[in-house]
Amino acid sequence: MAFRQSMINANNIVPVDYRIEEFPDGMNYLVDGEIRSYHGQGSEVVSPLLIHHDGNRSSFTIGKFPNLGPDEALQALAAAQQAYASGMGEWPQMSIEQRINAINQFAWHMRSMEKKYALLEMWEIAKPYTSCLDEFKRTLKYIQDSIERLRELDQESSAVSRAENYIYQVRRCPLGICLCMGPFNYPLNETFAMLIPALLMGNTLIIKPPRYGALCLVPFFEAFARSFPPGVVNIINGDGATIIGPIMESGKVTILGFTGSSRVARLLTDNYEGSHRLRTILGLEAKNPAFIFPDADLELAARECVDGALEFNGQRCTALKHIWVHEKVADHFLELFTRRIGELKCGMPWEEGVRITPLPEDRKCEWLSELILDAEQKGARVVNPGGGFVEDNLFHPAVLYPVSKDMKIHQLEQFGPLIPVSSFSGMDELVDYLVNSDYGQQASLFTASPQYAAPLIDILVNHVSRINLNAQCRRSPDELPFTGRKNSAEGTLSVSDALRSFSIRSLVVVNEQGKEVFFRTLESGRSKFLRI
Hints:
This protein folds into two domains: about 1-285, Aldehyde Dehydrogenase, Chain A, domain 1; about 290-485, Aldehyde Dehydrogenase, Chain A, domain 2, CATH 3.40.309.10. The model is unreliable at about 1-5 (pLDDT under 50). It contains 18 helices and 28 strands. Strand 9, helix 7 and strand 10 form a beta-alpha-beta unit. By secondary structure, the chain is of the alpha/beta class. Helix 11 packs across helix 12 (about 330-340). The strands form nine sheets. It has a seven-stranded mixed beta sheet, sandwiched between helices.
């Protein structure tokens, strides 16, 4: 009754277009092509959107997800194993076009769920509704782009090549069972950026949704079950240590696709039996810096840094998380920067033009406030009016300046709307920062001169994987490599790179005595691998 009453209160306040009358039954999971009901105790999913009604503040449960145990986890593993069947299962033995047809069928089912998904994501993680729609559309585009690129790769692989006295044909083959664990901030796009290439290349999957965003994949269960052979896609939920530990300890998984913290990634790989058989594609923490030189267009730099630091509350691995500005222009930049931040709209995710929304993680506002207190005790101050003000679980963006290396915020990834700013006078300070940083995903460089750009580019390429000139850090477009150095990533994702990451090159090679049977087999059309 309390749940129903709180929803009634919410619906008195929330605009009609953004209401959900019925949330999905999250107490289901998908194993071996069957949507199964869990009858044990589940974990409540509480929306981060707090509703004020008659002077009271209400939080409300929007659903539950199952707390599966080791038995269910190992059932999912067994289903994925059976579907792969040591590479001889129906899915890995399908032709590329057959797998593409299955993916297209899934995408066809998926298209009708756009608004339903966007609303569910908005309610579950408080992402602005328009951003949820963008994520959905981008994911559909990623599916089609991946299909087109796979066809191109397959066409390129059809060639018969020669090296010295050898004739050969090379194609890409699946690796086996993939464990896929996406993040809460992009529960659809980041998960599908691993799931889709893994499927296209013939692997079978076990998917563990994130703790926040646990309900977001539920609407797709039926489409998965209809589109793929049993056991090809399995989705389980619950406490990670309880259900993922036994899967990794089995040594049966051959690919780990994971986006999250390096601490969790270490736990996952440390528990793996037979580590040399495991391929890892990891997207981990990042502390992407921006470097602003004295000749930079400061209006441009301020605009890009606000967008780069605060899109979806700064809760993106690609967000700008530390700004370095030359001491000659620091005051002017901070004036422009804080003025733009003051213009940002904070509020509920359905509000038009909203930029800052409630934070979904438990105690996140408290932790960010602790970082501010630590920095203030060591000489920094919040330089923007209202910065750091906490309203329920909405944290108003805060700019800390001047930040020094003895402050926690200097090294920790804050993953929220808290922006440290440091000043510098020479290149040696930037080099010291880069050399001692644990992270190396991207950097932004703001300057109008090769005098500043050239030497820093030559340093940065050995510390980060992407340098953005006079622009914020970002992942897109998906055709570009997305990876990182140090503790920020392992493996590379892009439309093309992901297909390679989730497969391995195999080849058939012959010399003179094998040439006849090679070409006869090729022309017969009887081999799925050796073909024209």
